[in-house]
Amino acid sequence: MSEMLKVAVLGAKGRMGTAAVAAIDAAPDMELVAALGRSDSLDILVERGADVVVDLTVPDSTEANVRFAVEHGIHAVVGTTGWDAARLAGLQELLAAHPGTGVLIAPNFALGSVLATHFAAKAAKYFDSVEIIELHHPRKIDAPSGTAFRTAQLVAAARAEAGVPAAPDATETELDGARGASVDGIPVHSVRLAGLVAHQEVLFGSHGEALTIRHDSFNHESFMPGVLLGVRTVGTRPGLTLGLDGYLDLEG
């Protein structure tokens, strides 16, 4: 029998954290060694011998949490947003000094969402126009979502590589925000509505046709297969991986 993975969850009192604690506790190949809240000391991770930490906290604390893990040789699976270019560069520098440690930063753990983003990037070069609508619960603190931001980046990169011109748009006057946020030239619209969990539509259009790629997460348990995949894989992928797609065979 293989050795159990010792896993700790940060942000264990939140909705995602609660679901992660339950999923890890039920996994036959994992042992939940810590479920930490905001005021708990990170030293507990070392004391209890955690192999992997799952960070589901808030942007203000995630960088310090992950740096602590890496400095102590603990792999990290991160679902917290707030990782801008400067923070990522600092983390890569730290990981270079700890070459055996792996970190996964994933804007979305829903496997269907990861696939939808992949499909959108594949479709991007075949249509004149593309816009993204992301819809989430009103407790979400960032807009646009990390998933929409990454989707827009990948779509824009695919269009640029294929030499697709900018989408047609004759707008001359607009209310502030009416055309959404621009992420690498891709309009992204954020909806915050009670009753929703996490949803995204990528809308493509060309003369005479349209394609919509939509993914819906109806509960937080939908993210758990991806979290468990990350926990099981991160120790075999030293260095930094951005996006759960880095752990999936999407090019085969």
UniProtKB/TrEMBL annotation:
Main location: cytoplasm
Dihydrodipicolinate reductase N-terminal domain sequence ranges: 6-109
PROSITE patterns membership: DAPB
Active site, UniProt feature: H136, K140
Cellular localization per UniProt: Cytoplasm
Catalytic activity: (S)-2,3,4,5-tetrahydrodipicolinate + NADP(+) + H2O = (2S,4S)-4-hydroxy-2,3,4,5-tetrahydrodipicolinate + NADPH + H(+); (S)-2,3,4,5-tetrahydrodipicolinate + NAD(+) + H2O = (2S,4S)-4-hydroxy-2,3,4,5-tetrahydrodipicolinate + NADH + H(+)
Annotated binding of NAD(+), by residue: G11, A12, K13, G14, R15, M16, G79, T80, T81, A106, P107, N108, F109
Binding site for (S)-2,3,4,5-tetrahydrodipicolinate: H137, G146, T147
Pathway annotation from the record: Amino-acid biosynthesis; L-lysine biosynthesis via DAP pathway; (S)-tetrahydrodipicolinate from L-aspartate: step 4/4
EC number(s) given by UniProt: 1.17.1.8
Annotated transmembrane regions: none
Example of a GO MF term: 4-hydroxy-tetrahydrodipicolinate reductase
Keyword line: Amino-acid biosynthesis, Cytoplasm, Diaminopimelate biosynthesis, Lysine biosynthesis, NAD, NADP, Oxidoreductase
Alphabetized InterPro entries for the sequence: DapB_C (IPR022663), DapB_N (IPR000846), DapB_N_CS (IPR022664), DHDPR_bac (IPR023940), NAD(P)-bd_dom_sf (IPR036291)
Keyword Transcription on entry: no
Dihydrodipicolinate reductase C-terminal domain mapped to chain residues: 112-242
Purpose of the protein: Catalyzes the conversion of 4-hydroxy-tetrahydrodipicolinate (HTPA) to tetrahydrodipicolinate.
Entry similarity comment: Belongs to the DapB family.
Complex formation: Homotetramer.
Name assigned to this protein: 4-hydroxy-tetrahydrodipicolinate reductase
